[in-house]
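Internal ticket #5521
Category: modeling
Description: The requester needs a full-assembly model to guide mutagenesis choices. All entity lines are attached below as received. Residue total reported by intake: 759.
Assigned to: D.W.
Attached entities:
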Amino acid sequence: MRLFTKTLILIVILFAVIAAAISILSARNLHNALTTEYESKAQAIAQGIADSSTEILLNRNLATMQAIIDQFIEIRGVAYVFVSDVNGEIVAHTFVPAVPEEMKGLVAPYQRRGVISGLETSRVEVEGFGSFIHVAAPILAGVAGFVHVGMDLGYIEAQIWSVVIKQQLLMLAIFLIVVGIAYIAVNRIVQPITRLADYTQTLAAHDFAAGLDIPKEIHRIEEKNTGEIGELAASFIAMETILQQYLKDLEETTAAKQRIESELNIAHEIQMSMIPKTFPPFPERREFDLYAKLISAREVGGDFYDFYFIDERHLCFAIGDVSGKGVPASLFMALTKTLFRATGGKLNPTAREILTHLNDEISRDNASCMFVTLYCGVLDTQTGEVEYTNAGHNPPYLVVSGNVSMLEKTGDIALGVMEGVRYSAGRCRLQTGDVMVLYTDGITEAMNAQNDFYTDKRLGEQLSASQGESSRGVIRRILEDVRAFAGDTPQSDDMTMLVLRYRGSQAEHVPTLAVRLKNQNAELQRFNKLMTDFGEEHGVPEETRFRVRLALDEALVNVVRYAYDDEEDHDIRVVATWDGEWLVIEVQDDGKPFNPLETSQPDIGESLEERKVGGLGIHLVRNMMDELSYRRELDSNILTLKTTPRPDA
Amino acid sequence: MEITFDDAGDVKIVRFEGMIDTVTAAEVEAALMRLLSQGVSKMLLNFERLSYINSIGLRVILVVAKQIRRNEGKLRICSLNDRVREVFDITGFSSILTVVDSEPEALEAF
């Protein structure tokens, strides 16, 4: 109603202003008009009396004089009439009962003035009586006397007032009628707007899902009003209908999206189940340590790895990357992987043959022109020889005794590009402890916030530092490093790794851990971890692991502390073997000759005060281990520790 | 290695979580010696969450024990797991130090 109130107030003010202006103007006009009229009236009366009074006054016929004057007092507006003679004495008057003293003063200006020809009109104010228009008409040019006629100005004013008041009342009446009409008129205009405004409020709180229910009156507003209001109402109705539609569409789209997402999740599970995830995959085969991991960037992706035994002796392993990402890549990946498995076997026992045939199959019906890079190797578990073919994939790394190198590319094209390609083969030989690392470019091309790539260089550095670790350890190390490098940057491509560590053919095989460490305390921690992993991996019982850990801790601390006099770096070599029954560890250092077994035993019977602080280490080593021996070979100290699992107490 | 402190009356309870080995021994020694210099005379070492201790760690315990003895205070150790217990037994520490099975028992004896 604010709009309406505003308009109303405006009208009221306007009207008030107009009314006031009219009143003032008309009052003014009336005043002037009346005054002028009364003046001329007074003048006419005075002149009339003067003209007919000459004789009478000269004869001093006062009675007649009085009679004449008395006639005129009846006239409206005449306040008084009196005649003064040449001496200024009032000889006839209309005052009752007598001439007031104050009035006598009016005569004064006209005494003994000589010859006066015309009327003299003036305004006079008499104390206690009021204001008057005073007209003095000379009788016989003033020689005989004067006729004085006074018109009551008060009377005029009263008349004006009454007119003005009547006028005001009339205007008020008109005003009220007009306002009343205006109110109704404006209300009629404003009402639809008000209703629309109210409707907008309810719209805002409206639950669109409940369906549209535009009130009939809104429709009526539209129908009944042709102007802007009608248009407004029409657009309201249109808007609500459109909104309703949008929301319905949105609901449908959201539902569809959720459906797709859940389907993608299922697809992800299916895809993940296609890839072997049990490790170790062939626990009875001790010739190698194989571990692999795939981390997809989206729900589904195009990377994969696979491995299987072609025959008793030959392990086929592969890693691949389909061009593209998401659903298309994943479908192609599923196809490739299935065909890969199907192709290898007795008929195609080499990597080269597998890929040649696989390529033909994939290229044949490749309408989408997708392709896949793939590296496939076949390991002869007896000899450590690997025959491999690389179809356009990142060449694997070889880690041999701590030295990292990259396998040379065979120059072959990716699979799926065209049929009839003859693939070539490469060869290399793995020794015990050598590691082959397969990966996809999701690793080397992982980006951080500065848009730097992880690069082959970093990968190489990490592999260098991974010497002695298990395959699982290597992959964990690389993935942690990549994650640390990338930070918060989201993963843009699938990351896949497969690590194959050769342990040697079964005949010479005993699980062995060979580690080189520097003579620093931090290295002891690293070694400790390697030893624990080794023990866990090969089923060394927990109580044995604890004892070995403590014994080696003490032995190595001894070496670090006492074997060297200089501040230089020195290498300590530890080799541990486990044949299922005996765990044999050899600690070799190139320090000064030192046989820890010769250290005196601490007296464990001593009391607290007498007990010396040192000597505990070797005591513990002796107790934790079953056999201890020391020998000096060339420039090295070699301490050998042996233990077998003890029944848990 | 995490060391947390607790009070039970005038006894300071020190709880260890992790290992006392070459890397952490210095930290442990510093923390315990600090308590002594603050005037703690009754100390209980709770080893419930201690998974490993080597001779370096034992040395630290011995040094602290000797110091408390000189200050005429009391040191007790409680809640050792089997492995750590064995280490204490082998090295004779079980006989020169007061080792109790549980914390409530240890607190009672103070």
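Resolution: model delivered.
Comment from assignee: Residues 82 and 93 of chain A are 4 Å apart (CA to CA).
Ticket closed.
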